[in-house]
Amino acid sequence: MKDLFQLARHSVAGLLTLLLFTAVLGLGYPLAVTGIAAVSMPWRANGSLVTAEGDHTTNPSDAVGSQIIGQAADGTLFLPRPSAAGEGWDPLSSYGSNLGPDNEDLVATIKQRKAEIAQREGVDPADVPADAVTASASGLDPDISPAYAALQVPRVARANGLSEKRVRGLVADHIDGRTLGVLGEPRVNVLMLNVAVRDAARLG
């Protein structure tokens, strides 16, 4: 009887501990972090949304995209990296292809992408950079390399009635360096660059 009493007491204590930590860590902590983020950095907390003018907004109806999530673009603008996420750049289905570098399907896909990009941009396949033909781990990378951006300059310039010099200047203005000076590689945010291209084309 004594053993049953101790077992019941320990079980109740364990259950209460579980409920307490569920409330604190499963509800309290996430709500506190969300609340602090919403007050201290509302733009970032609401998805880093950007308007057609390149301004920050927290209203989804005013946004043309998110600065931190890749998205499709038409052939008149700079194109992002390939995506394996859902139907492409789907934030609710974020993942990579999970195929190894020696996988025959991946090798064939990269070869096909390289040929298509080379034809579209009018360059030799050997000049197509790696990030142009490979998806990121999340499939949602919003950035491309300066080399891939430079490759697309002639096409984007022709499509928007701008000089290549002007578009190259826009690319240069949108190159972000390594994080903290040491992490990652220089990169170009595709959405912000495309906003600038549209703005330049509108102003003439």
Automatic annotation (TrEMBL):
Any one GO CC term of the record: plasma membrane
InterPro entries the record matches: KdpC
This protein's record includes keyword Secreted: no
Pfam families linked: KdpC
Location(s), subcellular: Cell membrane
PANTHER family: POTASSIUM-TRANSPORTING ATPASE C CHAIN, POTASSIUM-TRANSPORTING ATPASE KDPC SUBUNIT
Assembly and oligomerization: The system is composed of three essential subunits: KdpA, KdpB and KdpC.
This protein's name: Potassium-transporting ATPase KdpC subunit
Natural source organism: Nocardioides guangzhouensis
Classification of source organism: Bacteria, Bacillati, Actinomycetota, Actinomycetes, Propionibacteriales
